[in-house]
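Quick entry between incubations.
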Amino acid sequence: MNVIEMDGLRKEFTVRVRAGVLRREKRTVTAVDGVDLRVERGEMLGYIGPNGAGKSTTLKMLTGVLMPSAGQARVCGLRPVADRTRLALRIGVVFGQRSQLWWDLPLRESFDLLRHVYRVPAGAHAARLTRCRELLDLDAFLDTPVRQLSLGQRMRGELTAALLHGPEVLFLDEPTIGLDVVSKQAVRGFLAELGRAGDTTLVLTTHDLADIERLCRRLVVIDHGRVVHDGSIAELHRRYGSRRMVVAELDSALPEPPVLPGAPVQRVEADGRRLVFALERASVAEVVAGLAGLATLRDISIVEPDIEEVVTRLYASERKGPLLTPGV
Amino acid sequence: MEVRGALRAYRSLLGAQARSQAAYRTSFVVDLVGNLGATVFDVVTVLVIFGVTRELGGFTLRETLVVVGLSSCAFAAADLLVGNIERLPRYVRTGLFDAVLVRPLAALPQLLLMDLPLRKVSRAVFGLAVLLYALASAGIDWTPGRVALAVVAPPAGVVFFASVFVTTATVSFYWVDSGEMANSVTYGGRDFTSYPITVYGGWFRALFAYGMGFAFVSYHPALALLGRADPLGLPSWVGWASPGVAFVAATVAALAWRVGIRHYRSTGS
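Done. Structure below.
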């Protein structure tokens, strides 16, 4: 069953640009340009794209914050803007740079307040809070006013706040932005746990591809408001020819980088004693055989493709494509 | 059941706001006193004017005080309850507006309760005191009708000013840098209603008094309470029209808010 449906979803903004001393020109910017997507119950969907690609705008249309310019969206069978307050009871939202918490009150009080706001029975509320306290280690700062929390602590509070009413769908907009490594791990671990339970659908936008690799089997890449990839991470690698790397450690540096057919040198490190080859058409064995004839090999290692690199290449190929849309 | 749940939710939002402000207790007390300033000043201005003249636009001091009392009582209460909606651009910028929109409650009451400026209570109390003093000392010939009007006119004025606050704030849905434009209508309206409208002239009076409806906040109800004919020639029943005008204003405000919220653009990220 589909929890989220988007059909030709579109959002345009009119901006006024200075076109002279007093003259201003109206210009229409398309932030989301006809997105069709289906998300099933229990899926964990990673939504990625460069700045200004339309990720947040899409999320805001799905949560009832923004009115679509065209097309339609359904979440839990409801129309996000028209049924906003009814939908709010069934979804949880974490905006990384926004807060659902009361700045001047202890964290614990925000949770109490949200119980009244969402009209959650006391028992269910207490059970969910206990679970979040354990998994997210909240006890140390439950009585601290939110304004005094670190970003990582606050984000753990935001996650709890979004889950206390038992939402069917959790929308997360940049949940790990600005967090230190430890907090990032805590947040990812918690979300992974939530996903394993299988009854919460998770939609996550991020800059940090590690979030996606760790959490999401399905990846949607959006650029200039359009979906440019929808599938697994492995499919992304296949489609955009992401390359595995062979790292060769040599005894001594070669006078110049060797030319091996189908495996161009990507980087030369350690004064020429470490060479990194990209596997384009050649196999690992061919690279090793080719090198063995030229130098003494000390060590060989293989590096799996980096999703970051794939996505960079994906954006680049998108931009060169025929469907070029003017950027903002 | 649904309504009761929502009411309880709003009540807890109000409680949270009170506790948040209590976190800064000393500054709260200072604010409470400091906030009296502006409202007291309005009354002092009128007293000063009557120090140099016996009549203002054909009205005596005691008659004018009824106008001032109705105006400051209505404005102060509306400013306390709804005035902070002028901070809408800030709510948009800090993301509070987005946060409020993803909760299962209406957006406007949430914003008002979450940022209710309790320190403005002192102004409303002062406005009410001025009104009560004016009504007691103006030598009003109390009939049941006038008693009813004295009870209904101030809340109607509150609703009217509240509607003006909301309507002008919605401008920032379209134009975030609308700046002080809204203030010229809200605070301008307060100043306009503080005097008998006979002191103003021409198109300015026509615009504020009847174009926007400010004449129905204090001037016409005061005439009806005092039993005076309108020097500008409108019939006497106009003084009882203020609840109707307030209702129209509230309808316009509700519409403006609904349309505005659909034009809301949020901010980046």
